[in-house]
């Protein structure tokens, strides 16, 4: 288990990196999940609140690239919930394109709660990954 100050340090680095102090959605994703999307995977939507009590970020990526998904799972040690269980869900004021009910109903989910809340939902029919980070 990684101490909470490591998460705070990572978010702090994200807040203060770069000349202008702001990072691209790709750089934030790479910083929090350890790998940028490959060229064929596009960021369809991005939301980032770096300054709240709990920094929160959300991405919609398309198409689903299984090699990239496996990299994200391995890099951050994400796991699937036990049958019939779901990890704790936190609902932030994300934009309307982040439909909490629909996303949380997707059956393919990978998560980790050790360094903030990391979630990746896979929408195979829609060809999208829904990626979330909440720095608790």
Notes on the structure:
This protein has one domain (4-134). By secondary structure, it is α+β, with helices and mostly antiparallel strands. A five-stranded antiparallel beta sheet has the order 1-2-5-4-3, with helices on one face. β4 (117-123) and β5 (128-134) form a beta hairpin. The chain contains four helices and five strands. The chain has helices at 4-16, 25-33, 66-76, 100-104; strands spanning 42-49, 56-62, 108-112, 117-123, 128-134. It is globular and about 40 Å long.
- The count of strands amounts to 5
Largest sheet: 5 strands, antiparallel
Percentage beta strand: 25-35%
Number of helices: 4
What class would the helix/strand composition place it in?
alpha+beta
Radius of gyration: 14 Å
* Unreliable residue stretches: 1-20
Write down the domain tally.
1
Task: Put the structure in a nutshell.
The protein is of the alpha+beta class and 136 residues long. The chain has helices at residues 4-16, 25-33, 66-76, 100-104; strands at residues 42-49, 56-62, 108-112, 117-123, 128-134.
Features:
136 residues, alpha+beta, five-stranded antiparallel beta sheet, 4 helices, 5 strands, globular
Lay out the secondary structure:
Blueprint: H1 4-16, H2 25-33, E1 42-49, E2 56-62, H3 66-76, H4 100-104, E3 108-112, E4 117-123, E5 128-134
Antiparallel strand pairs: 1-2, 2-5, 3-4, 4-5
